[in-house]
Amino acid sequence: MHRHRIILVTSLFFFLVIHASSAFSYQQIEFIRELGDYKKPAGQRLMNGPRSLALFGDKIYIADTEANRIIVLDQSGKTLLSWGSKGEKPGQFKSPSGIALDEQGRVYVSDSGNGRVQIFDGEGKFIRAFGSKGSGPKQFSGAGGIAASRGLVYVADTGNSRVQALTADGVFMAQISVQTKKDEMKAPVAVAVDVQNRIYALEAGNKVRIFDASGVQTGAFGVKGKGTEGFNGPQDLAVDDRGNIYVSDSGNFKIKKFDQQGRLLGSIGSEGAGPGQFRKATGVDVDRDGKVYVLDSGKNTLQILACEAGDAPLLSPASPLPSVEMLNDFSRGVNALAMDKRLWGLSGDSLSAVGVIAGRKIGSTGSEPGQLKNPAGFAIDGRGNFWVSDTGNDRVQKFSLEGNLLQVVGKTGAGEGEFHAPSAVAVSPRGNIFVADTGNKRIQVFSAKGMFLGMFGKPGRLAGQFWEPLDLAVDSSEIVYVVDRGNVRISKYDSTGTLLWEAGRAGRQDGEFKAPRNILVSPDDEVYVLDSDNARVQVFSSQGKFLRKFGSEGKGPGEFRSPAGLALEGGVRLYVGDRGNSRVQVLGLKQTPAVPADVTAQARVNEIQLSWKPNSETYLEQYRLYRADAPQGPFKLIGTTAEPFYIDRNLPSNRSFHYRLSSLAGGGNESALSATASAATPRLVPSPPKKAGIDPSEKQITLAWLPNTEPFVDHYRLYRTKQLAAGFELLTKSDKTVFVDSPLADDTLYYYQLTAVGKEGDESQPSEVSFASTPKASLTVPPLEIGKVELSEAFASAYKYYETHPLGKVTIKNNTEKAYPKVKLRFSIKEFMDYPTELEIESVPPKREMSFELKPVFSNKILDVTENTTLQSELSLTYHVAGEPRTVARSFPVTLYERHAMTWDKTAKIGAFVTPKDPVVADFSRSVIQPYVDAYPNLHQTLVYARAVYAALGVYGLTYIIDPTSPYQEFSENAARVDYLQYPRDTLARKSGDCDDLSILFAASMENIGVATALVDVPGHVFILFNTGVPEKERATLGFASSLLVPHQGTVWIPVEMTLVGSSFTKAWYKGAEEYRDWSAKGKAEVMEIQKAWEQFKPATLAKGDGKPVRVKREEIEAKFKGELETLGRQRLATLSAEYLEALKKNPNDSTALTQLGILYGENGLHTEALEQFQKMLALDKNNPVALNNIGNINYLQDRLEDARLAYEAALKAVPGDSGIMANLARVLFQTGKVNEARKLFRDAAEIDPRVLRQYGDLAASLGIGK
User: Fold this and answer.
1) How far apart, in whole angstroms, are the C-alpha atoms of residue 129 and residue 118?
2) If we measure between CA atoms, which residue out of 103, 101, 117, 197 comes closest to residue 156?
3) Is the pTM of this model over 0.90?
4) Helix/strand number for the chain, H first, E second
5) In this structure, is the dihedral angle defined by the CA atoms of residues 984, 986, 991 and 992, taken in order, positive or negative?
6) Which end of the chain is more exposed for a tag (fewer CB within 10 A), N or C?
């Protein structure tokens, strides 16, 4: 097909007129191609009566309406795929009238004749369907166009004169309509959504309506008419990324383009069969390049046109709207729900766990203490106890987790502490108990011990009064929220009972209620209300403003019948008791975090440091960072982080970079991008080298200078001249700070200058001029002389290393024809060596040169050096001539780097900085872990210790800060450059450090308590591993995914990313695991075990410090990272128990699975569940010793010593002589005062197996039984 390019005016086949002010201007239009041939008969056509199309990449998806199918074309018109036929089954259609694709490429089809929406993957595989014929929520009457945008689906419900918004899995979210006395939306046939969440609806009645994200109409335009000004049976609309609106005006045979205010920008088309002509324009869409695609059901073709974008700016995308997604459900009818470590439900007159193995129930029907009568609600306090509103018995009862009755509060009456049909209980963060005293129309407050504290509210319909307070919730600030079914409203009170606001009234509109049932407050202060008779959940702000809703009447996913009970897990998972459908539905909350604010960019050497105000949402998972080379973009994703800072590393110098950020919710949405922050990396121009020393000797001059501190210095250039007036010439380049210029002429004056050169070639100004003269030639040659001397830089941190590894070497030369015996070579550096290093050379043969290593023995005074300096070393050679001693000596400069300096040519050098025996470190680490010893038997001890140390550092206030003078990534990329590290005590004192400093501190703390560590060196970064000691083949016993563990040298190690200090240990662990997986897959993860590093570089012995001990209490740790170890324990339990639960599904009598499951439950403090498993074992074999012994253990842990004794005795009867059971029984006997019996039994156990002396060391000591 030919490609036509023309300037259109009104006399041609088609035209586009653009209005500019009061004048006209014309825009270039290109006809690209037309797909399909209208001349072909029906059976051979590409399409038949198509109504709608959608674009995804280069593919064109078409609802081929009369053929009841979907076809997929490429840009040339080739059919890539098709599916569907006429019918009612999944994948079949009756007049499919709308099609849309979401960001993941899923296909949504409005199956008009079947009254439903069908969803397919991009290849046509059926996923699901939702909807039915009717007029209720999620019901359709002649569904028309459809749009999909970021988790939401919008359907033009033509026959019901509305647009419905639903989630991708069919949960009803909202209805958009206009019904006022002056205006009414009628029969919308098409719908579109732009990137700012605005909704566009096209009415068959010739009008376009624009709504904001909340469904409020913000604009409308269009009248019935012919030509360019009006509409005549419009069929479809589309919106481009500049907000321009395209309408297929079928009756006028045109495609029209409008701006947001409804101003006509232009139109194209006329009646006919040629290019740019239409017989019945139906579907229309526009791609990102501005190409317009138009379906013509009269010609059964698709035309592709190109037009200029116009002057309107690109729309800035808004954040996606919050929504929900269906996760799963449990078959269980409940009246109330609550979440602690697991989900609990109230059914009938008992309380039990939801979604776990059927087990115990708390409560039974009746009026006696511990019995319940029509209980309506319950809550769980901070100790895991249940507070149940025993509605029919006019009281509140408190039960333990095991189901034991702990307390009864109240009785029938209207006085203080008395109740009439109490229906709900809530526990405040302070432990106070709030009770909805429904029959007395008030709220009562009690202490954690059940003592009456106060009450508020009285009967009535006025503000602050109650008529049927049915449920209540208390937030983290002790603010009370009440749902009053009688007054059909919700209300908010402060902790003293003062009314703050009320919201709601009877009705079905947003913010209105019909028999509201339950209320809860999320950790982010959103208020969820179960609007029971409206079969939905409504969400309000903490100020009472309606935010959104979801749910509808029915029995499908996201539908409810007489719902009762709400619970929230982690702020992202909502449980709804769907009582009428006898189930509990689980919905994921797809939250949308705020756009990151106050983003700043600060340039450093080859990097830009970004920081921003941290988001407050508890569900925030990470921030995503985008970078562009120009302010206007395009912006590309460069990284993610969980912390409110990020370092963009390895950037070229002297370049500008521009950044935008978004925030991502866990399991939810990504926010819009932030405002742009920009910065330019500086030029890398070093400063001139300083303190150049010069030392002349025969035929050579030695120069030494202090190293530059800039991390980007690549090398030095040395310039020399004999005449200043002649100028300097380049002598050499060197990456060292010592250079020997030889051979030189005797008795000659030489001048030198030095420059430093950056890694990108920028050269510093020259140093000051240094000069020296070589000495005159000697008239006589000494018998023995000190020849060539090579000395490396000395690092104070590695001072012990030089005792076994040479600092340099010296050449001794014998100039005579005779040998010299017993020659002594001495090497010393004043102040830092208590005595010279002395070597006796047995003999120096005639006319020979011999080389010897120089190994200085430094004193730890060298650690007192606080800045780099040049030292003078002295070499002396003593020999005898005719029995008389002769000595020759020479001095040589040595560059000494202060104690914090090192180079990364050998990663093992870091061992010198890991100082576990430093009293500051030892006191810190041991004080931190002491309260955690044996505190969490369900987790591996090393994991508990590591978490305690890491969390304590965060509580103490330790932060990750890049050292601008020595960022790790700069030095790790050039092993010759000098880095500056902190000792653990320094990092504690400064409360900050780079990645290497933080890793060193953590390693030293863990090594102090006997846990081996290793440094992981990856390009530009380091992080840490610690050794669990668990053999690699037993890694499953840890109970965590293999992707989180590192097998190394036969054992399992756990990675920790120390730059996240201050956040949770779990986050640092997961990040470390991610980094290890990524870099090890590339073969670029070097693991250096600290204890192996010590074999070469022993830890420095620092002088005793005078700083205060660093102490962090366990209470402080657990307050900041509440429930983290418990969560890890639950994760481990879930992982390890899955295998046994699956085995029990296949065989409920699997004794191995019962045993292991019981032990797991016991380790995790789930004593009742553990007992259930062992009791099941006894039901199979009443003398099972394993079950009996473990029942004894569970009872012992709960201080039920008599029950424990009976179980141990029964177990011992089953297997006489079992030393472990004998020791367990002896322990109980001792604690019940039967010391003699215990001593005899324990001694017998030790004779059978002496290992019990070690395993029960405390008991052995108490009984006076030694090894």
Assistant:
1) 4
2) 117
3) no
4) 17, 87
5) negative
6) C
